Amino acid sequence: MSTRPQAVDITPGEHIHWHLGGITLNGDTITGTLIAGAIILILGILLRRGVSAKTPTRLQLAFESIVSQVEDMVESSLGIRTAPFVVPLAMTLFVFILIANLIALVPTGHHPEYVPPPASDVNLTYALALLVIVTMHVTGIRKRGFRGYYGHIFEKPRVMAPLRIIEEIMRPLTLALRLFGNIFAGTIMVALLAALPVWILWAPQIVWKLFDSFIGIIQAFIFALLTVIYMGSVAPHEREGAH
Hints:
By secondary structure, this protein is mainly alpha-helical. It has helices at 27-49, 58-77, 86-103, 122-144, 146-150, 161-194, 198-231, 236-242, and strands at residues 17-20, 23-26.
């Protein structure tokens, strides 16, 4: 018998496709996004019904502690009055990415998975990044005007202007690819573990699921934190004008 190792066919990144007219959609990404959105709505309804100043529920306490941390970050970077919508935006992105990553830990037994991590699809991460960056630019223009917001690009030394333009262009790309790369790496690891013999499969699966859930929490936090930091670019001239 041959003892040569057998090649394993691993094709991460496959999607369940839906065809709508002449358009091909990644149905698994859409399914995961809709499920995460539905869970957020349910949690919001439960939170709203159980809100109490005297006897707060565990869900309310957890939510208030997270909101308090986000408000502190926003206040220290740009001031809540400058852009009050940043707190709910960062909170929504954090909760959405977190839930989207965690629901993917439930295996469906299908290949490709019916509900993979939506952030493992670069189309979703680009959409999230564009939401943040476009909101940042629109807010900056509304607060400081077009010349006031983009004036830093042509500050001295002006020879650096091309690099500053490239930096602005790269922001949504780096924000999207950072999230995509980390979550997509998890799908590759799952595919590698699935190729292991059945009798040892359970042990690395459990270890990796725990690690993957930790990575999901960290990536959700980083994306929300970068949202606050990028929005902070609106603040400096606001503060200078106050002196």
